[in-house]
């Protein structure tokens, strides 16, 4: 087990070795996102909403059962873990080590969440840590100033508006370590395939279990579209809610906060102030009562000898990072 160094962390940006650096070392660099990509991102936001409406219309006359609940919850947990333990803690922050088979599975599951290709997701999140709640933060809710209307604009921006913005962090600046890995480049490039597979699996299961086209359609809607909707908005709420509402036990020089609701719903990601205090920690719920499903998943991998060397902050480091007063 590896402990995070005890030196102070000032707006860390994890790179290939997971070590924080100051903003002056890696300036924010962006490129214009092509119109077709912005349109695709917009569709990815709107389509799950259409799934919610269609699901309600279809379920009212056709009924609803445990099968579709299982497809929704199962898909949510699998793809959510792909994002939290995979895209976030493994690929972005290198919080633990694992073999290439587990890396591939987590990369594919994270892609099925439809939050963007692997390298793009990691680059954006590393950029977020580099510039947290400052001008170049891709999705800070504090980018529009004070006042109710500006705060609402900021929440909208942090929740989903940032996705269709014109900026995308440079891969050369933020993910040079991942770009050198052929398998990760393949996972990134095959993003449309993983999205399609993630939508087709629940449709196939629904059809085969019920032996009906209606079951396939409802499986697609509940295990596919509506599952994507919930994964999206829970994840994006970490960007918005967890930078506005919650506790700040640690002094991180930003507005990151611990929110217990999203600590549970976001599989541990809602302990966001903890995470910003110790970005490379494999565990975000640092107290015994801070439920962290992603850490439990990583611990399970360790028990199965499928993961090793989790990075965790020492007790002394946790105490020294506490907010004064």
The number of distinct β-strands equals: 6
Instruction: Output the radius of gyration.
Output: 20 Å
For the termini, the CA-CA separation is: 31 Å
Which consecutive residue ranges, at least 5 long each, have pLDDT under 50? 4-31
Q: Tell me the domain tally.
A: 1
The overall pLDDT average reads: 85
From the spread of the alpha carbons, the general shape counts as: globular
**Helicity level, as a percent range?**
55-70%
Strands ordered across the widest β-sheet: 1-6
What can be said about the biggest beta sheet?
2 strands, parallel
By DSSP (H or I, 4+ residues per run), the number of helices equals: 14
Q: Structural class per helix/strand content?
A: mainly alpha
Q: What is the string of SSEs from the N terminus onward? A: EEHHEHHHEHHHHHHHHEEH
Oligomer: single chain
Q: In percent, how much strand structure appears in the residues?
A: under 5%
Account of the 3D structure:
The chain has 325 residues and is mainly α. It has one domain (33-320). The chain contains 14 helices and six strands. It has a two-stranded parallel sheet. Strands 2-4 form a two-stranded antiparallel sheet. It has a two-stranded antiparallel sheet with strand order 3-5. Helix 2 (66-92) packs antiparallel against helix 9, helix 3 (100-112) packs parallel to helix 8 and helix 9 (191-210) packs across helix 10 (213-240). The protein is globular. The two termini are 31 Å apart. The relative contact order is 0.17. Mean pLDDT is 85; it is low at 4-31.
């Amino acid at each position: 087990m590896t402990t995070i160094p005890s030196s102070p962390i000032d707006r860390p940006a994890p790179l290939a070795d997971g070590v924080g650096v100051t903003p002056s070392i890696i300036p924010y660099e962006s490129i214009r996102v092509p119109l077709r990509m912005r349109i695709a991102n917009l569709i990815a936001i709107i389509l799950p909403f259409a799934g919610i409406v269609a699901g309600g219309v279809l379920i009212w006359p056709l009924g609803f059962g445990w099968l579709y609940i299982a497809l929704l919850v199962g898909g949510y947990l699998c793809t959510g873990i792909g994002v939290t333990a995979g895209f976030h803690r493994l690929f972005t922050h290198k919080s633990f080590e694992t073999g290439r088979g587990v890396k591939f599975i987590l990369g594919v599951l994270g892609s099925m969440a439809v939050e963007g290709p692997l390298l793009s997701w990691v680059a954006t999140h590393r950029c977020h840590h580099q510039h947290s709640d400052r001008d170049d933060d891709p999705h800070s809710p504090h980018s529009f100033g004070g006042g109710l209307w500006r705060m609402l604009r900021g929440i909208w921006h942090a929740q989903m508006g940032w996705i269709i913005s014109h900026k995308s962090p440079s891969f050369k600046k933020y993910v040079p370590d991942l770009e050198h890995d052929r398998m990760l480049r393949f996972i990134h490039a095959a993003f449309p395939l993983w999205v399609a597979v993630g939508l087709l699996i629940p449709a196939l299961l629904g059809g085969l279990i019920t032996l009906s086209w209606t079951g396939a359609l409802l499986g697609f809607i509940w295990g596919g579209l509506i599952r994507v909707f919930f994964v999206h908005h829970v994840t994006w709420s970490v960007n918005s809610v967890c930078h506005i509402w919650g506790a700040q036990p640690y002094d991180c020089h930003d507005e990151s906060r611990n929110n217990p609701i999203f600590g549970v719903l976001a599989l541990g990601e809602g302990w966001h102030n903890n995470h910003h205090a110790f970005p490379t920690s494999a565990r975000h719920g640092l107290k015994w009562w801070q439920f962290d499903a992603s850490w439990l998943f990583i611990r399970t991998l360790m028990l199965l000898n499928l993961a090793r060397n989790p990075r965790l902050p020492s007790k002394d480091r946790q105490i020294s990072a506490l907010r004064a007063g």
